[in-house]
TrEMBL record, chain A:
Protein localization: Cell inner membrane; Cell membrane
Organism: Rhizobium subbaraonis
Entries under CDD domains matching the protein: TM_PBP2 (cd06261)
One cellular component term from this protein's GO annotations in UniProt: ATP-binding cassette (ABC) transporter complex
Membrane topology of the entry: Multi-pass membrane protein
Membrane spanning residue stretches: 12-37, 49-72, 146-168, 180-198
Name assigned to this protein: Amino acid ABC transporter membrane protein 2 (PAAT family)
Gene Ontology terms: biological process: amino acid transport
Entry keyword set: Cell membrane, Membrane, Transmembrane, Transmembrane helix, Transport
InterPro entries (alphabetical): AA_ABC_transptr_permease_3TM, ArtM/GltK/GlnP/TcyL/YhdX-like, MetI-like, MetI-like_sf
TrEMBL record, chain B:
Similarity field: Belongs to the ABC transporter superfamily.
Pfam families: ABC_tran (PF00005)
Domain ABC transporter, chain residue ranges per copy: 5-239
The name this protein goes by in its record: Amino acid ABC transporter ATP-binding protein (PAAT family)
An example Gene Ontology molecular-function term: ABC-type amino acid transporter activity
Gene3D superfamilies named among the record's database cross-references: P-loop containing nucleotide triphosphate hydrolases
Keywords for this protein: ATP-binding, Nucleotide-binding, Transport
InterPro entries assigned: AAA+_ATPase, ABC_ATPase_HisP-typ, ABC_transporter-like_ATP-bd, ABC_transporter-like_CS, MetN_ABC_transporter-like, P-loop_NTPase
Organism whose genome encodes this protein: Rhizobium subbaraonis
Amino acid sequence: MGIQEFTYLLQGLAWTLFLTAIGFAGGIFFGLVVALMRVSPSAWLRVPAICWIGLFQGTPLLMQLFVAYFGLPLIGFDLPAWGAVSVALTAHASAFLGEIWRGAIQAVPKGQSEAAQALGLHGVSRMFDVVLPQAFKLSLPATVGFLVQLLKGTSLAAIVGFIELARAGTIVSNQIYRPLLVFGVVGAMYFAMCWPLSLWGRTLERRMAAGQAK
Amino acid sequence: MASMIEMQHIEKYYGAFHALKNINLTVAKGEKIVLCGPSGSGKSTLIRCINHLETIKSGEIVVAGHRLNDSQKAVDAVRREVGMVFQQFNLFPHKTVLENCILAPMRVRKLSRSEAEATARKYLERVRIGDQAEKYPAQLSGGQQQRVAIARALCMEPKAMLFDEPTSALDPEMVKEVLDTMVSLARDGMTMICVTHEMGFARQVADRVIFMADGQIVEENDPESFFSAPKHERTRAFLGEILAHH
Ligand SMILES: Nc1ncnc2c1ncn2[C@@H]1O[C@H](COP(=O)(O)OP(=O)(O)OP(=O)(O)O)[C@@H](O)[C@H]1O
Ligand SMILES: [Mg+2]
């Protein structure tokens, strides 16, 4: 494998990171919206959030990518491939993060919200000053775990012709007929991204278990 | 004398369960009430109705001249006047002691940070915990945490304070420091309703002791008569049990 092929893989890697970053950033923003809607006392907000979560958790990411790539142009959104993939990943991440954070919000002891109420704090302050910071901390291990899933999930973008890391690997491998070498390198790149994240997630989890035992 | 808290004909249900039955209670300005009774008798429910942590089915609650109803405005007005201290402290664990104390004054009373910090330091001194202002709740003992919780409530400069078993989650050696803080608060003329089984505290500061059972006020009297000459059978049984444990 020459420098040219390796550069090609690095370009794929850059796209993988880019897609992950977009999916995650979009997922954080819309996931927060989904989580807040999901815990709302109003059914008008809660039910759509439940449906949204169910829809994306109940179908394969592969299908979501297909629908975004082929479906969005049909209803008039003519997006480039990376745009369609970003939309799909963002929606996917918003549902999963929304559900993770819903659980975390509800895991914050009720006394916290009651103390805030007794002090006269309103809903917004109660949520953003008191509940969410604690929920975010509780959710960190699961959130990091999902980040790893999402990073690996971007490889499915290859199905709509997107050349991210996994697809770049296939192309290079077909050119130089050294599949073991090429996929070894590709695998090592995924590993180098995911392993530290997983470790970090596990450290957080252990630290929190220790905090609870106290 | 002007009344600080007035509850009239309060009925409260949890689903089909009748938790408060025709509660009538008037607390004068500066008066100290101790509320006791067996577990499940409705003591917490009663004081939580006063600041609208629980909603009532019928009856009327007036706090410092504000008639409580379901409107946010009325609820805000009432919560602005009463502070509450919980059995489990309920300090915000992700905020330092000082941050715990300045949050509501800044958000609700719209004080500037420096004003809020000055107020907070004043009340933290007052509960003798001024040197712990930069620590997190988890770094403090239970007694210290509960004193912070008292200071946090005082930072809103309430006219009345509600205490829901403030010492029953504490190790025995820390009960006294919290009770001392409450006694000093009482001496300064704060209107207080305390759910507690600390009978020493009741004798020392209460103007009236109220005994509840099954969602009703069964008996009320000044502490001396309450303890020496309880009128009802249930009160006698309850006092017997409490004293046996002490
Ligand atoms: N959120 C709730 N939902 C249903 N029932 C409740 C709820 N809160 C309290 N109850 C019931 O109402 C009754 C009174 O409860 P409350 O907590 O006021 O009692 P208490 O006198 O404070 O008891 P304790 O000494 O154990 O704190 C109990 O029977 C309790 O089971
Ligand atoms: Mg109680």
